[in-house]
Model the fold of this input.
Amino acid sequence: MDDRILKAFDDEIGYLRDRLVKLEKSRAHYVELMQVQSRENTVGTDLRNVTLSLSQETAVINRAVISGWKQLGSVARRGSNNQVVYDRVLKVLETFEEPVSTADLLRSLRAANIEIGGKDPRNTLSAMLSTSPLFQSNGRAGWTLRTDNPSHRNAPSEAKPDVEEEFEGFAEPDEPAEVRTERVGISNEHRVAPPLANMAPDGRGPLAPKN
Done:
């Protein structure tokens, strides 16, 4: 047996033990940092008095956080670009009653210096419009605004009041008296008030006949 092989094993074990100790210290430092941040529950906490020496293993965590923020920023930029595309397509479709093809929309976007990425920009644009509730696909005919979208519905017209029912049976003010009498169904000869002597004391009607 060669003692050099055993020594190599011992060296490797020693290296791994040292690495384990460093990892444990780095973890302890990171836990301490988390505890400090949780106690200072305000934005812009002054951490200048906290001096921590982080090892390379802790720096990996920092790089992962930075990478995550970059990915979030990329998602936000894609969302903003989509909104620019939607606004442009919306303006184009509002000026046409007939469907507009994807190719024509793509030319309009390029004329406005709005680029669509992907290997096939036409398919990319079609996929983007399909995910929006504003636009309706009409097959090869092209795109129109969705008619069932509340933002594009026409406001219902106000109902006009029917005044004829309220004044039904009455003549217009400028009609002759004879016409008004005839329409109401009462002749002038029947509009005779009963004698005052025959009226009841309360004035509500004639007295009852005496036996």
Remarks:
- Residues 79-146 form a domain with the Arc Repressor Mutant, subunit A fold (CATH 1.10.10.10).
- The chain has a mean pLDDT of 67.
- The beta strands are 135-137, 143-145.
